[in-house]
């Protein structure tokens, strides 16, 4: 049973050292009770206290891993209902379903398209995360052959979908080392599926369409039998019922600490949709509202892009802006006579100015200062983007070695820094650029000779 903040406080050193990042031990205890911090943040907790506080520091939703290697899917470990309360931790896996009744050419084409799809957003590359292979044929040999084929053509994680234990066993014989997820254990086959999950050390999805009560009974049975890495499927598919069920599961796990439902959830938006457009909308709902693995039936670049973008927007830490690595970047193929522009390392700021320079046809050197991910005006007002910072970055990145001139363009929003920067860089001409990135092309055309 979870401990209250006061109960946790009794086990803490009560020194108020602030090394945990909180002003008092009591404040830390309250955050720990709400699963908003890790016990490890306190460096002075003894072994006896650690053991007593294990339940309080344990995430209410278990972390489950599908697959092995660098491309594994990690889901769960969430501690809040809403992103603004702290942050969401593990973004949902986006998985494409393949049925074993499809021809070999169709399977190969889908695997190639999905595995090869990628999109660049704010300096990072994203793609889809895996495949769910369904035993639509009902034949164990056909299923195993399809699983083996997909596995040979991709290193993305797999979810094996079969309710017949014999078919599942045949497929696992081919790919068990890749640690696929087993889908699904039901009230009719749970004993056999549990044994397969234990034998292969694979995560097990548990399915019940008869309410959360039965689903909890099945997960409790699997857990007591020795399978801890579980994934929930509440068996609901349409918009309203899936929203209600997934929200109830999250609330029960977080607010009530109801351990039988403290696991990630898998969803199938294609089964609740009548068209690709409906599937896209329902998949988006599942990304936003508590789906951990979202299995889509049809791959299209447009659908993938929309879901990846939505997921990126939701599953970033609102307290930690997406940042670029400080440094000197080449936009296009700049020469020694090309412009040298300065900006901050807030990703959106960087890509705004970089995109405008590129689209305007101005190969340039773009000097990115470390402002801890803040935009130009925010960083300036916080004292993190000043003349001293710009000058140190110009010198530290050896910008003078890349160009034959000594002209540097600062954002128009911080024109006030010009005088101070002239003192810091006496051999340089400080030029004040436009306030908005969209005007940089016209500015350079008029001012860069």
Keyword list:
449 residues; alpha/beta; 3-methyladenine DNA Glycosylase II, Chain A, domain 3; TIM Barrel; Rossmann fold; three-stranded mixed sheet; 17 strands; globular
What does this structure look like?
39% of the residues lie in helices and 16% in strands. It is of the alpha/beta class and 449 residues long. It has three domains: 5-57, 3-methyladenine DNA Glycosylase II, Chain A, domain 3 (Orthogonal Bundle); 64-314, Dihydropteroate synthase-like (TIM Barrel), CATH 3.20.20.20; 327-447, 3-Layer(aba) Sandwich (Rossmann fold), CATH 3.40.50.11600. Strands 10-9-8-7-6-3-12-11 form an eight-stranded parallel beta sheet. A three-stranded mixed beta sheet has the order 13-15-14, sandwiched between helices. The mean pLDDT is 93.
* The number of domains: 3
Low-confidence stretches: none
Structural class: alpha/beta
Percentage of residues assigned to helices: 25-40%
Would you identify the CATH architecture of the largest domain? Alpha-Beta Barrel
Largest sheet: 8 strands, parallel
Report the β-strand fraction as a percent range.
15-25%
CATH C-level class of the largest domain: Alpha Beta
CATH superfamily of the largest domain: Dihydropteroate synthase-like
Mean pLDDT across all amino acids: 93
Number of strands: 17
Number of H- or I-type helical stretches: 17
Task: Report strand order across the widest sheet.
Answer: 10-9-8-7-6-3-12-11
Radius of gyration based on Cα positions: 27 Å
In whole angstroms, the N-to-C terminal distance is 72 Å
Question: What is the 3D shape?
Answer: globular
CATH fold description of the largest domain? TIM Barrel
């Amino acid at each position: 049973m979870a401990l209250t903040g006061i109960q946790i406080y009794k086990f803490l050193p009560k020194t108020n050292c602030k090394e945990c990042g909180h002003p008092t031990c009591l404040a830390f205890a309250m955050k720990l009770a709400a699963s908003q911090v890790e016990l490890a943040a306190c460096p002075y907790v003894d072994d006896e206290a650690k053991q007593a506080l294990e339940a309080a520091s344990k995430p209410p939703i278990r972390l489950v891993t599908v697959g092995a290697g660098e491309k594994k899917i990690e889901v769960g470990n969430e501690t809040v209902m809403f992103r603004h309360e702290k942050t969401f931790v593990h973004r949902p896996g986006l998985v494409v379903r393949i049925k074993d009744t499809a021809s070999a050419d169709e399977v190969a084409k889908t695997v190639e398209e999905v595995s090869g799809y990628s999109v660049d957003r704010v300096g990072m590359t994203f793609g889809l995360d895996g495949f769910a292979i369904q035993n639509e044929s009902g034949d164990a040999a056909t299923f195993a052959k399809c699983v083996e084929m997909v596995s040979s053509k991709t290193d993305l994680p797999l979810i094996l979908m079969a309710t017949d234990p014999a078919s599942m066993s045949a497929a696992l014989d081919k790919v068990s080392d890749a640690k696929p997820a087993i889908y699904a254990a039901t009230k009719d086959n749970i004993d056999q599926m549990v044994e397969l999950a234990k034998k292969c050390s694979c995560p097990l999805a548990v399915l019940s369409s008869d309410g959360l009560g039965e689903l909890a009974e099945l997960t409790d049975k699997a857990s007591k039998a020795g399978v801890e890495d579980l994934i929930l499927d509440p068996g609901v598919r349409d918009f309203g019922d899936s929203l209600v069920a997934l929200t109830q599961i999250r609330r029960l796990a977080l607010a009530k600490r109801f351990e039988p439902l403290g696991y990630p959830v898998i969803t199938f938006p294609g089964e609740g949709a009548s068209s690709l457009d409906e599937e896209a909308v329902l998949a988006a709902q599942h990304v936003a509202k508590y789906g951990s693995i979202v299995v889509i039936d049809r791959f299209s670049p447009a659908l993938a892009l929309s879901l990846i973008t939505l997921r990126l927007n939701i599953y970033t830490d609102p307290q930690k802006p997406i940042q670029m690595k400080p440094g000197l970047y080449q936009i296009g193929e700049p020469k020694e006579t090309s412009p040298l522009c300065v900006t901050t390392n807030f990703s959106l700021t960087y890509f705004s100015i970089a995109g405008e320079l590129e689209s305007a046809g101005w190969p340039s050197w773009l000097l990115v200062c470390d402002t801890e991910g803040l935009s130009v005006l925010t960083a300036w007002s916080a004292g993190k983007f000043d003349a001293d910072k710009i000058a140190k970055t110009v010198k530290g990145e050896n910008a003078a070695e890349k160009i034959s001139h000594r002209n540097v363009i600062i954002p128009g929003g911080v024109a006030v820094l010009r005088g101070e920067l002239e003192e810091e860089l006496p051999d340089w001409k400080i030029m004040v650029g436009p306030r908005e990135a969209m005007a940089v092309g016209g500015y350079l055309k008029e001012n860069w000779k």
